[in-house]
Amino acid sequence: MKAATFGEVFAVREFRVLFGSFALLVGGDSIKMLAMSVLVYAQTGSPGLSAAAYMVGWLPFVLGGLFLLSLADRIPPRALMVAGELVRAVTCLLLAYAGLPVWAMLALVLVTGLFSPVFFAARAAMLPEVLPGDAFVLGRSLLNVASASAQIVGLAAGGAFLAWAGPTGALAVTAGLSVVAAVVLRVGLPYRPARGTTEAGTAEVGAAREKRPGTTKAGAIRETVRVNRQLLADRRVRGLLLAGWLPCVCLAGAEAMVVPYLGGQGQAGAVLAAAAGGMAVGEFAVGRFAAPGLRERLSLPLAVLLGVPWLGFALGPGIAWAAVLAAVATAGLSYQLGLQRRFVESVPEEVRGQAFGLQSSGLMTGQAAGAALVGALGEVLAPGPAIAVAGGAGVLVALALAGALRPARTPVNSPA
């Protein structure tokens, strides 16, 4: 497979649209979660409810990922992505100006968030269509870099907006960003038919439905459950999903302990920012300088690297060393680049949207579970040892998944 370049990736207009709208989405979501947390705390004075408000936007990924993902292959992708931005804009405006009680705000975010996995899946599944071959992997790398950078900028901007206009003003800014993203997507992307109903290749798809996951006329919930089961029953797909999920579960657990490790003070922000920076640097370096074959061979050692630095927290490092260890660890997240080509080739094209949705929903769910598990461990142990345990678990998980993390011995461009 010929190695692509970042220049070639950015030369594709549709990718530039996806990239820009994704940066707006991640930055806006960071501002929204921060503003909502502050708004809830201002109304209730409860740290617990404030923390719940910060995390509630991710919880719907569990239910949405289990029951609604088939919509990503049944509705044209541009329409889905535009609808997602408009739903986010309306939600933010209601949170800011409708005067809702706390329970209603949390319920609104949960209900509207049920479709978030579908919107994310539509975007992810469109990427290999506009970026074939190795360009797709570099595109994923650039989106990950954008995610890390937008989180940092979004949190910093969120703090500035909160100080200037309060939580309602920050939520209004998020709504504005969503409207801008919707316009960019609507104007910048051409129409593409729904993946499960495209006329091209209909005969092949119809013949394949007897043998492998596909779209049918069943209801969205039933179809989502059916295809999820079939994807997970496929040994190769299941291995790649677990390889993408489980090391990140341990990473999320370690990161969740950074705030209590530093005594709940503002120093944690510096460590978490260093972690985001390490992720961005790792994604860029591996995407830019590693050839496709090397990228896949690096998956196992980089997945191991994801856990090793956290072991150093058993020694009680100060903030400077904690930031260095966190940055080195998250650089290992680039291990996922070596899985992307194999994942795309392992799933049927007609359910690619649901497959990518399952990948992201499982990742979100696993990270929440990892944070909860290591948080519970931190109640028993001190935060430093709990972080070290999470790192050790990450190393063991990566080694246990070595079969899925290692590439097949056949050449990259060989037929399966």
TrEMBL record:
Its main location: membrane. It is found in: Cell membrane. It comes from the Bacteria. Gene3D superfamilies: MFS general substrate transporter like domains (1.20.1250.20). The chain crosses the membrane at residues 52-72, 103-122, 170-189, 239-262, 268-286, 298-315, 384-405. It is a multi-pass membrane protein. The keyword Secreted does not apply. InterPro entries: MFS, MFS_trans_sf. Keywords: Cell membrane, Membrane, Transmembrane, Transmembrane helix. This is MFS transporter. It comes from Nonomuraea helvata. The lineage of its organism: Bacteria, Bacillati, Actinomycetota, Actinomycetes, Streptosporangiales.
